[in-house]
Amino acid sequence: MIVMKFQVVFTAFTLALAGVTNCGADNIFIQDEVDDKKEMVTCTLYRVEGIPLSPDLPGFSRIRCQTDSHGRAKVINLPNNLSDNGPIKSGQIQITVPLSSLSSGIIDMAAGDVDIVPSETLRYARPDMRDYYRMLVVRVTDKKGDAPTKSAAQLSDDILGTKGDVWNLATGYKRCSGGKLNIVPGLGEGVVDGVLDLKINYVVAGEYSEDVEEWVSDKFDQIEDKLGLRYTHRMYVLPKSVDFNYVAAYATIAGYTSVFHDEFSSYPAITIHEIAHNFDHEHSTKGYSEYGDRTCTMGLNQPWADDGPRACFNGAKSWEFAWYSDRHLRIDPRVENFRGKLISIDDYLNKKAKSDDEKTVIRIEGLNDADLFLIYNRAKGVNAGVNEFRNMVTIVEARAYNDYSYWRGALSDGEEYRSQNWNKSGKKLIVKVCKTVKGNLDYASVIIYLNKKNNVPCPLKCGSDKEFELSIQNDAVTKLRYIVQRQNTGGQWGKKKLMLRSLSKNELFVDNICLDPTRCYRFKIFDREQKKRGLKSGGYTLRWMGDKIKESAFPKGPREVTSFGDCST
Prior knowledge:
Largest sheet: 16 strands, mixed
Structural class: mainly beta
Helix content: 10-25%
């Protein structure tokens, strides 16, 4: 074990649970798990993240420690060196603290030695994103009758769609996932359509939300087994009079609890965001704003409304949810390129994808797991309400599993994203949107390659003609030239050169042309000095109508000829 002392503040709760199970906590506090001999207590650190009312306001982040039996304690004086890079990973660090360091539900890391439990011993079960989950909505009323603005029936419909509400927490996840992730009402005595009315013996007006939350959790622990409550996630809805310090809601990352300020529980952009925290997702950032990527529900996807905005997630979050994984593509541009289509998520969900080159999310491998994620942000159907960069290919970077995503760009027709010295290759990464197409299948035609390494051209729209494509890599010595000619009706090769180029030393060149498939053609490559040495390195590849018809290292020289097309006569 590693022993260290601690310093900084924060507050969190909860474990991630998969499947429709009963969280069923007894009324056991953190002191119940004390080892009598060592007088030590073990708990897991969780982060809580709160969403601000506007981009100009800060959200909040807290740390709490929770035991397996749902005992809770605030953590203060957390050390900066507990995490190597950025915030701690919620639910993945356990600590053992002396009983003497506990005081009124507070763990002070600076008060005594703390043991860090080795991570490999932590029992952490990541939820399956293709499953059913039970949401228990807890509508909180105080001793004076101060309650949320909306009735239990209204909350049930706004959050779970039990009376036909079209866009809400449940339908949002169901539609974005294509029916793979489903949120259904929690069950138990006194629970009606997933909502439990809970009265606490406190006055909440003007009180801080975290204090009220703790009162609610204490009451909840007392009644949970008695009422036979069954849920995988619980959502507290507190009255408007509670002080939320300019945040709309907050939730535990990799946990099962979320807390909402009154009417904000009716806004699906907020409920989907907060429950994604429960599912272990971080924010989608852009520039200096932690919530700046407004193409993603994990950014600040405003304006908020009861029925929208209807939007899903960016490329990084979509990759991790894995709902469209049968059309994911992961490439290392140092060894391969890509030419194909990024299709709209709505068209994928409507089963319009047919061809192998039609992808939903592309992941480009980078250095130290700093990968790029591409998605076609088509504003249509399930994603019709997306706020920014509509109908463009968006690019974000993510550096580890379910880490923050970082905005890198958006491309429309003809635009490129470039990154120098990609993955220390010495080559420039090129991502280009050749064009976007609307039709039965909406897509963006995309090429990805390392410049002067494995270049690939944009596809041509050839109509009744067909595409001929070539890629040539010259060496440092040979003076290469190539030509393409068409055979005339008399069987002679025409004088007109359909393609012609002399290559520089070490040059990588790609080209394509539309040709009539009923005619015969020849490709001729030769050493302008007519030497028989061939290439020391490199070579060339020819494709006709999408098929590879020739791949050669040009080993001997001084020339090679390849015929293609209809050469039967």
